[in-house]
Amino acid sequence: MEPSQIFFSKVIELLKRVNETQQKNIDKAAEAVTNCIKDKKMVHIWGPGGHSAIIAEEALYREGGLACVDPIYDPCISLSHGALKEINGLERVSGLAKVILDYNRVKKDDVLILGSAYGVNTVVIEGALEAKKLGVQVIAITSPSFSKSIAKDHPGRHPSNKNLYEIADIVINSFVPPDDPQVEIEGISQKVAPLGTIIQIFIYQTLVAEVAKKLVESGLKPPIWTNALTVGGVEANHEYINRYYGKVNNL
After folding, report:
1. CATH number at residue 116
2. Has residue 251 been placed in a domain?
3. CA 66/CA 90 separation, integer angstroms
4. What is the mean pLDDT of residues 124-149?
């Protein structure tokens, strides 16, 4: 089988596993997000560490996405200002999570969606703990099996050795395996083609679809972004830009 077909089959296999086992947790998360929006509180989404930061970019000013979601995309805890600096350094710094949550005005009765495939680094654990202290409901998109595979004494772990799935109020299991790359190529020892980001984004967009349906069923118009490249798209988005500018730091 060609490498592309192997990767395709692995992705489909994992998507099916999420689809067949996580609907109950997705429903719980969608209900929490819907209630938060109805109460005019903020829904934040953050991927504190490495490539998990991409989940926030996916939620930012995205055609078909929810305009009332605040994507926390902080340069110091993303890859945009240096991957080595972030992965080998900043995601392990204690105290940084509180600074970022404060800066993004995360408040009591908000919802915070945390995306982290491995769910152990200092910033993601402190982010979850700080949010819980504030009275924020925490939804995790993570892989408990990945968390469990990381040694307790690994320097990348939070000092408490806690895992994200143990802290969050609602956990949606992404089932991302500890060996994230999926394709073996003859002649090299390291597998290629990781799928963790694809699965995390799939779960988030599934959640968006469920929330939109629940809002409509509640008699509310979901605030959905229009493609800015279509005729009238920018103008159509002005309503939400005016409503959420200042509340969503990265708009």
Report:
1. 3.40.50.10490
2. no
3. 29
4. 97
